[in-house]
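Quick note —
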Amino acid sequence: MITLGIIGVVAAMTMPVLISNYQKTVYSNQAKKTYSMLSQALTLSVEKYGCKPACYYWYPSNCKPHSCVRYSSDGKSCLEYQMADGSPLASDVCGATAECKDFESIFLSNLKVIKTCQNKAYDNGCIPKYSGLDDIIKEGNENISDEDFNKKLVGQDGYASSALMNKSSAYVLASGEILMNYSGMSLPRIIIFDVNGKKGPNKWGYDVFAMHTATKSSTDDSFFFVGKSMAQKGGVDLNKIITNRE
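Predicted structure written out below.
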């Protein structure tokens, strides 16, 4: 009886861990599948467009070295940036956007979209409620000062919870995934996606991820997706998932 009792206690302790690990494996496999699907759509779209569109970030660094030199009075936004050498901000500091709008329609045509919500995606029923980067920052440091919090969010406020709910457009696919743009920007320069739609847990690094288009040079043919490092506690970086390092 004592032995059976010990076995029962051990099972009660290990089962939740096993279930959690299994669920993470399922989410990771779904993330790989969605990444592959979107990458195929990207390749088909480039073929139809006729060339690599000016719609990307630089790789391996998203942006050329630069920094904020003047913040708003509340510290929530940057009013002036400079390049690392002190020169004015370059027009291509973070890649190119000139052809994103034209390319978006071609990209979406290679996906089976069954419902679209232009802005107000939550109110219009396309997405569940998501935490944002603002929540993740606070989750990792509850005592962070307002100044430090705002600096971490500057330039990434499109990932804030309110922006996801109110500013991002959403596209529901026939296969169940949800795609979102970044604060109204044209796809696919930044894509936020939920691998299983409104089903839970609806958490970053579990079933919700983000990635962006990238190129090594404006003069070569390289054009691919790179995952964003953004995850809630216990979640996994998308880049680790797609390279089998999770």
